[in-house]
Amino acid sequence: MNRRVAVTGVGVVAPGGIGISQFWDLLSNGRTATRRISLFDPVGLRSQIAAECDFDPAAHGLDHETTERCDRYIQFALVAATEAVRDAGLDLQRTDPWRMGASLGSAVGGTTRLEHDYVLVSANGARWDVDHQRAEPSLHRAFTPSTLASAVAEEFGVHGPVQTVSTGCTSGLDAVGYAYHAIAEGRADVCLAGASDSPISPITMACFDAIKATSPNNDDAAHASRPFDARRDGFVMGEGAAVLVLEELGHARARGAEVYCEIAGYATFGNAYHMTGLTKEGLEMSQAIDGALGQARLNGTDIDYVNAHGSGTKQNDRHETAAVKRSLGDHAYAIPMSSIKSMVGHSLGAIGSIEVAACVLALSHQVVPPTANYETPDPECDLDYVPRVARERKLRHVLSVGSGFGGFQSAVVLRGPEGRRQ
Amino acid sequence: MSRQRPRRAVVTGLGVVTPHGIGTDVFWKTVKEGGSSLAPVGKEGCDHLPLRIAGEVRDFDADALIEGTFLVQTDRFTHFAMAATQLALDDAGFGRADIDSPYSVGVFTAAGSGGGEFGQRELQKLWGQGPRHVGPYQSIAWFYAASTGQISIRNGFKGPCGVVAGDEAGGLDALAHAAHAVRRGTDAVVVGATEAPLAPYSIVCQLGYPELSRNDDPQRAYRPFTTAACGFVPAEGGAMLVVEEERAARERGADPRATLAGHAATFTGASRWADSRSGLARAISTALTEADCRPEDVDIVFADALGVPEADEAEALALTDALGPHARRVPVTAPKTGMGRAYCAAPVLDVATAVLAMEHGTIPPTPNVFDICHHVDLVVGRARAAELRTALVLSRGLMGFNSALVLRQGSVPPPERRSASV
Q: pLDDT tens across B101-147, in order?
């Protein structure tokens, strides 16, 4: 693969702040955006907390027609993509639309809307033979997961390869990875790559309640997401979106674009073990890290920072620590590894892209975001998790990893402007 | 580095679960005879809905095909996927002994409807009885990635795993992902799509598609390319394929049955069918170029055949745009008019049919269709004998996606350029 893939634009809709400057302000100050759920009344749930976006679509330029037609998670994606395109200085009039693609991830897509209308047509869950006459006219758009990528592609006049990626909680990394492959292998020159989810709904909260994956720490919502801490008790649900403009490096240079960094490698593997369970050894995540490093032609010792999946469940953080040590060896102890889920929660399919966006900004600022709420070490998690306070550091190569239901393990390697090429 | 022959992705096994029956024998027999399995919707709770005709999979005995531990945690669409995978592996003679490393076998599916029946049941428990009645498997049964994850686990495949959440065209895109993974270094990928979109609430969601046929006569409900075209009929079922790197297949003694030679995808906007003409034409031309084929090499076209006059017209014109004078001569078929469109699975079934058609030297007809009103040589009535070496499969998604895939019989490169590429 000779074609290099540059990141030239970033857009983020995250809890605690819309837009990359507010997002970075939150991360670099170690503030948390987790709180009691306000989007619906969570009484009766085991976990009643989440990281919510204070999102006013009109304030971000979405008109009434768009908000009627598009679910919340698509609205997030449109706002993030608009910021990313503007940030990239991409002139759509001068970009070949047939060579421009879109790769958007989402784990649960339109389920929030599907549930909303389900309640209407089933008379509050009373009937199996649901009443179609009570459904809203645009319900089919929520049912069809490709609506996400379609809406974004339509907004920006994209005519090249477009897809919605849905690999559960690795969707956000995989959407970036697929776009990276599409550009590197010559199927597109520019790609809008990102992910979005708005899963804070009764059914999604209830289904994670059922397997005790989410934190029940309802009395201390602001400090409930505690990745790598010995007292961690599950993840805190989140929502949001991030979109990157990825571009073939020569294409970016030809139009004089500022390049943040490169996507240098990506790999994904399955653990073939369990839909929700993880092994202690982290073999498959390690395989993904090795695969991404191999594509980037880098060694484990080249990595300066690991942006962790760090969901805050007992098994994940242990698994991931083992995987990073397996791939990076003793070097793992010498570099920082942090989880922004401590601040913005776990927005399922979206978070992988939000985390890649955080890596891009970390490279740009040469600052490592912290793991908020980290206080009590866990003997099984013995790396440097950057407790509570952001840290300046020379960053050349950054690794972002993800792990999700289905057993999927993904890794992306980013190369900063001072990174090494062989 | 020494000049290596490029890695080619070949099909070695097919597994189908369809309204015509389970397995390729009964499927091909019905398809070849132009049989139709469209019938009144017979699912519980659907009598009152304005969707009258669908392609249902009958006589699918999940208990006989899949272990109880997998059945209980999955929706019908994943039951289909697991069953079709087993059929495809058996068909390919691909067993555990053929796997060098678990990381060398990947899984890729496309999914558009998700676990709708399972999801509706759990929504009913949540809203009818309360959050504590939601079962532990809701979190892994409803989401689009369920089939990829379960196939990986059930078979021990740890290679690259992925999911596109598409509408129809996503099925071809999944096959392209498999081919790309093989070219990058994976030895085998189990790939395809299965759908089960006929639960009551899933049907209610689809009623918003302006393209959905509400006709109540099984013989008239889905008649593309005719003046009587009144939309498409939805269906359930699908196909999984075993795709392998050509040399890896030969080394284990398997014969390549077809080569995934070229693919391209474009986007032209949701329900803007006239615009799909340019998108489809471009996808065809790009896919042919990738396959190193000329328009005249195409021996058979499997049409998207949406059944909406404007869309049918655009498809016929796209063929003329992309194939030139050859468009008037090349036979076109759409066996899906006898089964309905199983969303992402529809084009995967077409690919499976194309492999069988090339092997049998037989073009299956387009059931229920007569009096073509477009300039295409649509094969209707009886099957037609023909030597088929190159097949073109087309698909369009309701949200604006156009994909084209070129299949070559066996592993033979195009005749004129054979000496150059070997």
A: 999 999 999 999 999 999 999 999 999 999 999 999 999 999 999 99
- How many whole angstroms separate alpha carbon A359 and alpha carbon A367? 9
Rounded CA separation A74/A76 (Å): 5
Please tell me the distance from the alpha carbon of residue B291 to that of residue B404, in angstroms, as a whole number.
Answer: 11
CA-to-CA dists, residue A179 to A68, A248, B148, B260, B270, angstroms: 29, 11, 20, 21, 21
Regarding whether B330 and B188 lie in a shared domain, the answer is no
Return the structure tokens found at A286.
Answer: 């390690």
CATH code, domain with B278:
3.40.47.10
Give the C-alpha distances (Å, rounded to integers) separating B309 from B53, B222, B274, B347.
19, 12, 10, 20
The reply to whether B181 and B38 lie within a common domain is yes
SS3 for A125-142, per residue? CCCCCCCHHHCCCCHHHH
The encoded tokens of residue B392 equal: 């073109």
The model's pLDDT over B183-208, given as tens digits with 9 standing for 90+, comes to: 999 999 999 999 999 999 999 999 99
Nearest to A159 among B134, B162, B268 (CB): B268
| Beta carbons of B201 and A44 less than 8 Å apart | no
Q: What number of helices (H) and strands (E) belong to chain A? A: 14, 16
Torsion of CA B108, B112, B118, B123, to 10 degrees: 130
Per-residue confidence (pLDDT) for residue A73, from 0 to 100 = 98
ipTM: 0.97
* Number of domain units in chain B: 2
Which residue, among A328, A97, A392, A166, has the nearest Cα to B142 in the 3D structure? A166
What domains are defined for chain A?
5-110+145-415 (3.40.47.10)
pTM confidence score? 0.97
DSSP line for A219-271:
GGGGG---TT-TT---B-EE-EEEEEEEEEHHHHHHTTPPP-EEEEEEEEEE-
What is the phi/psi pair of residue A384, to 5°? -90, 100
Handedness of CA B392, B393, B397, B401 (dihedral sign): negative
- Residue A375: exposed, middle, or buried by beta-carbon count in 10 A (0-12, 13-18, 19+)? exposed
Share of chain A above pLDDT 90, in %: 98
Residue with tokens 């075993």: B242
Contact of A269 with A372, CB cutoff 8 Å: no
CB contact under 8 A, B162 and A159: no
| Residue of A137, A207, A267 with shortest CB distance to B208 | A137
Closest CA to B191 of B152, B224, B219, B233: B152
Cβ B204–A174 below 8 Å, yes or no? no
Q: Assess A185–B contact: CB distance below 8 Å, yes or no.
A: yes
**How far is C-alpha B263 from the chain's CA centre?**
14
Question: Do residue B246 and residue B275 come from a single domain?
Answer: no
Q: Which residues of chain B have pLDDT under 70?
A: 1-4, 412-422
Q: How far apart are CA B11 and CA B256, in angstroms?
A: 6
> Is A339 in the B-facing interface, judged by CB distances under 8 Å?
no
**B115 and B233 in a common domain:** yes
- Token pair 């956000």 is at which residue? A172
